[in-house]
Amino acid sequence: MSDEPKFIDGMRLTAEPKSDRLVDGLMLKKPNDKAPDFVKAKGSINLQSFGKWVTEYQKEKIDNEWVNLMIQEPYLQAKMSLKLDDFKGWIADFAKSNPSKEWINFDIKESKSGNLYAEVDTWEPNKEDKPSDDSLPEWMR
What we know:
By secondary structure, the protein is of the alpha+beta class. The protein is built from 2 helices and 7 strands. The protein has a domain at 11-108. The longest helix is centred in the middle third of the chain and has 14 residues, at 47-60.
């Protein structure tokens, strides 16, 4: 696995006012307390749910090649804009390369210049990090 960052194509963030439309399959949460200051949020995309939402959105907004998503959390207020065709292609490539994955995890980070960007979180637990069956209580085996 390469140590170079993997960026999410077609995604950018800018400040924007509040919106009340919910997006299925796209979740954000506050970063871990131990995360560096430049990590502003953790996110996850459920491939199945988000795919259904994008399909419905495109039916409603036939002439719109972008979708603008508002983020209104106490720890982050921003607008995320996705160029749908590029983003769908990127997700399809991810799904083909990772057939066992149901989720794409990512971090929203702030660059030194103050711009926000999304980066795929490729962290996976080591086999040593997982408890062995012997370390589990009898009823959990």
